[in-house]
Amino acid sequence: MTLRGRLVTLEPLRPDLHDGLVEAVRDGELWKLWYTAVPAPEAMAAEIERRLALQERGSMLPFATRLNGSGRLIGMTTYMNIDAVTPRVEIGSTWNAASAHGSGSNADSKLLLLRHAFETLGCPAVEFRTHWLNHQSREAIARLGAKQDGVLRNHSRTSDGVLRDTVVFSILEHEWPAVRAGLEFRLARRD
Q: Which of 97, 146, 157, 158 is 20 to 30 A from 132, comparing alpha carbons?
């Protein structure tokens, strides 16, 4: 499945996208941010393999994010923790090259993923999670129109073994029309 928006195209993650994703992650050295789980260049192949293995098991649907104008890869995003029965998904494991921050690319990719989740999959809710200390991510999720559900204290361990508090946000299906309108308005201002 490929999702095409105004600014970005979300295409299925594939091993042959490795070099473009390594170039994207080097833009801003995002793996050095201690409160995120962005793969380092030398770990990109393993991360692609990990996400594709989760896809095989049905718990993740990973995408590479490509700018429509230049065709350049800028990052990754996923549907994760997929519950096909409810149905419900979490949008997460997202990172974009530093030069794409503030460009509208994140809003466009979230619009694509949310539209598909609510309007095609029929999800009653879509979830987002982030590290308590990742203020940039928390602010971006709130700007989408997601509401904070709570904080899971000592929820998981980071790659260096430190316990992290996880902030949980969600958008409910009855909130989706207002969220969609807000995202479409933000993107239209870029035209």
A: 97
pLDDT digits (tens, 9 = 90+) for 128-149: 999 898 898 899 899 999 999 9
Say how many Å lie between the first and final Cα of the chain, rounded. 26
For 55-68, b/e burial (b = at least 16 CB within 10 A) is beeeebbbbbbbbe
What is the Cα–Cα distance from 63 to 79, expressed in whole angstroms?
A: 8
Report CA-CA distances (Å) from 125 to 138, 149, 170, 171: 18, 12, 7, 6
Superfamily designation of domain 3-188:
Gcn5-related N-acetyltransferase (GNAT) (3.40.630.30)
Pairing of strands 88-96, 125-131: parallel
Q: How far is the CA of 104 from the CAs of 58, 81, 96, 107, 191, in angstroms?
A: 30, 26, 11, 5, 11
What per-residue confidence (pLDDT) applies to 34?
67
Domain extent listing, the chain: 3-188
Q: Residue 145 is encoded by which pair of tokens?
A: 């129109």
| Neighbouring C-beta atoms of residue 86, cutoff 10 Å | 12
